[in-house]
């Protein structure tokens, strides 16, 4: 069957979150705090080890008290905040305000950068009449990020886990996405960077295409093959 729709993951697929050092710097600036270089390096290193930046690396050190919460963090916005502020709380920071400021920072458009091929691919799909959905395991509304980067007009539907109370790879989220863009699963390809989460679409009958979760500068054109997969849907 002809592919008439594409579902995209968000983080690591269409957008890349800023590095931990930039994320920490922005929060420190908001607090008016300047750290010595060695102390800044320690904070950044430990925040990364604990996976405290949503959309960044997964934790290398997981506190036992957060293990269960980690598994369901994307089902609810409050669970998401508790998980990531809890991970950041494992790191000694110079001001207690920073834990919430760090979390709030990652939800801003400034914290996210589209991959170089994101806009060209989304624009080409729109021109061909191919329906586009964004399916994300996430605990906050990413629509403002798309609007700020001029990409919202290319998206037909957003299926966000916290709004549905279900996370990928649960096929219910993919089914809702297919319904939202008015297509059968066999007419849709899911594009993502997580073999387990995004690969769940295959159980529903969607085609699946994977990309690597790399820094934006290191992945200029991984989305281009999607254009070959998605035939003209008009």
Automatic annotation (TrEMBL):
<dbReference type="GO" id="GO:0016787">
    <property type="term" value="F:hydrolase activity"/>
</dbReference>
<dbReference type="InterPro" id="IPR023214">
    <property type="entry name" value="HAD_sf"/>
</dbReference>
<dbReference type="InterPro" id="IPR036412">
    <property type="entry name" value="HAD-like_sf"/>
</dbReference>
<dbReference type="InterPro" id="IPR006439">
    <property type="entry name" value="HAD-SF_hydro_IA"/>
</dbReference>
<keyword id="KW-0378">Hydrolase</keyword>
<protein>
    <submittedName>
        <fullName>Phosphatase</fullName>
        <ecNumber>3.1.-.-</ecNumber>
    </submittedName>
</protein>
<dbReference type="Pfam" id="PF00702">
    <property type="entry name" value="Hydrolase"/>
</dbReference>
């Amino acid at each position: 069957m002809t592919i008439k729709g594409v579902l995209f993951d968000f983080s690591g697929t269409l957008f890349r979150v800023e590095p931990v050092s930039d994320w920490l710097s922005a929060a420190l600036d908001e607090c008016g705090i300047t750290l010595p270089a060695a102390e800044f390096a320690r904070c950044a290193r430990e925040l990364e080890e604990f996976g405290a930046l949503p959309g960044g690396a997964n934790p290398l050190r997981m506190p036992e008290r957060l293990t269960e919460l980690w598994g369901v963090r994307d089902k609810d916005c409050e669970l998401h905040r508790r998980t990531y502020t809890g991970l950041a709380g494992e790191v000694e920071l110079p001001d207690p305000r920073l834990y919430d400021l760090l979390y709030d920072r990652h939800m801003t458009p400034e914290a996210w950068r589209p991959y170089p091929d994101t806009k060209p691919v989304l624009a080409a799909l729109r021109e061909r009449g191919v329906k586009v959905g964004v399916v994300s395991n996430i605990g906050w509304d990413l629509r403002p990020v798309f609007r700020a980067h001029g990409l919202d007009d290319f998206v037909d539907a957003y299926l966000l886990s916290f709004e549905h109370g279900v996370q990928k790879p649960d096929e219910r989220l993919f089914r809702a996405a297919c319904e939202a863009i008015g297509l059968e699963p066999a007419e849709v390809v899911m594009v993502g960077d997580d073999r387990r989460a995004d690969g769940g679409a295959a159980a529903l009958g969607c085609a699946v295409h994977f990309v690597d979760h790399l820094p934006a500068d290191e992945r200029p054109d991984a989305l281009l093959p999607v254009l070959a997969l998605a035939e003209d849907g008009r």
